[in-house]
Amino acid sequence: MEFLGVPSLILLPSQRNLYGGLKIYLVESKGGAIACMLLALFFLGTWPAILTLLERRGRLPQHTYLDYTITNLLAAVIIAFTFGEIGKSTIEKPNFLNQLSQDNWPSILFAMAGGIVLSLGNLSTQYAWAFVGLSVTAVITASITVVIGTTLNYFLDDRVNKAEILFPGVGCFLIAVCLGSAVHASNAADNEAKLSSFSNDYEDGTAIEASVSKTAYSHHEDLEKRICTNEKAKFGTAHFLMELEQKRAIKVHGKGTFIGLAITFFAGICFSLFSPAFNLATNDQWHTLKDSVPHLSVYTSFFYFSISCFLIAIILNISFLYHPVLNLPKSSFKAYLSDWNGRGWALLAGLLCGFGNGLQFMGGQAAGYAAADAVQALPLVSTFWGILLFGEYRRSSRRTYMLLISMLLMFIVAVGILMASSGHRK
């Protein structure tokens, strides 16, 4: 199916059309769809690292998510009024503004339902990152999305993707997820060993707040002196782990892992449903629209999708300002407006997420939404940022490094196979 006004990142002569002297490039080729997916993979793997960085610096997640939500909606508006308005509007393929007045409410509701579950999933992961870690949260949510979401999209797309390639790719993804879980377990054991090296130094148990390690410091006073001089702890040391707990907004020490895993699994279920809902909004597989009403374009669907995502996020986060969860401190809307610490980064994260989602949907409309779920290999990008920015897996055991390398290699294989399953929507 050809969609006017979708600029292809792979420019082919057959994709060029002229309208009023303007060259229009369409994402209708397999190459263009894969380019969209790759760019979406980078964007969607980067914005979580930015929000994690702000939480680790002590910024309240309610403040961060409110900023993020604003630019996330802005990205959808930009896409709708640029790509959605390029080219001549026809009865079969109306542009964005013309579709706003059409009787297409069933498709609009599907798009908005997708936005609601995505907003709930993104909001949940912001808290899960603190408990479970950026990399492990990403692999668990990705696995649930692939198992449920990709299967649903495959059947909704009338098997446009090659099953003999698609489902082996899903299997590779699940193997990578198992390896990711093993990485988390091994790394947690490494951290426990680091902490246990000094936890026995003080019988009263206060060393966990102020001590580093018996091999590095022999006295409590030495540690206090070093902290007062703001000496930066090295990644992967017990000192670093303790400093992180003191600075971060969400305190996780002493809390059970069940809370974080429960939040993560809830987020994964939400993520597995938003893409099938968007698929129904743009292709009307259940025939809910009247015969004379054209399908929603990917841009119009994304606009309504982002509107509901924005509204849910605003309502919940303003509520969390005054009624916080997980023992976070109370805040207020006035305090949020005056909190400029890290606001630019949060706004950037919203743009990355918004354009990343838009690119994923553009690629999915051209090559099948099941293949577009290859962007769920975003743990590749998140793990890179986790190691570079947060020092994850620094000074870990050889076993942890071997598992980490195996996980990343399997993710690369999974991405390649899912992209190779791309079909062409008729």
Keywords:
426 residues, mainly alpha, two-stranded antiparallel sheet, 67% helix, 2% strand, globular, disordered N terminus, transmembrane
Overview of the structural elements:
The chain has 426 residues and is an all-alpha fold. The protein has one domain. 67% of the residues lie in helices and 2% in strands. A two-stranded antiparallel ribbon has the order 1-2. Strand 1 and strand 2 form a beta hairpin. The chain is globular and about 70 Å long.
Summarize the structure.
Helix content is 67%, strand content 2%. A hairpin with a 2-residue loop joins strand 1 (16-19) and strand 2 (22-25).
**Helical fraction:** 55-70%
Question: What share of residues are in beta strands?
Answer: under 5%
* Unreliable sequence segments: 1-26, 201-230
Instruction: Give the SSE string.
Output: EEHHHHHHHHHHHHHHHH
Q: In order across it, which strands form the biggest sheet? A: 1-2
Quick check: average pLDDT? 78
Shape: globular
The main sheet comes to: 2 strands, antiparallel
Number of strands: 2
Rounded to the nearest angstrom, the radius of gyration is: 23 Å
N-to-C CA distance: 5 Å
Instruction: Note the total helix count.
Output: 16
- Counted up, domains total 1
SSE-based structural type? mainly alpha
Family: Belongs to the plant ureide permease (TC 2.A.7.19) family.
Keywords: ATP-binding, Membrane, Nucleotide-binding, Transmembrane, Transmembrane helix, Transport
Subcellular location: Membrane
Main location: membrane
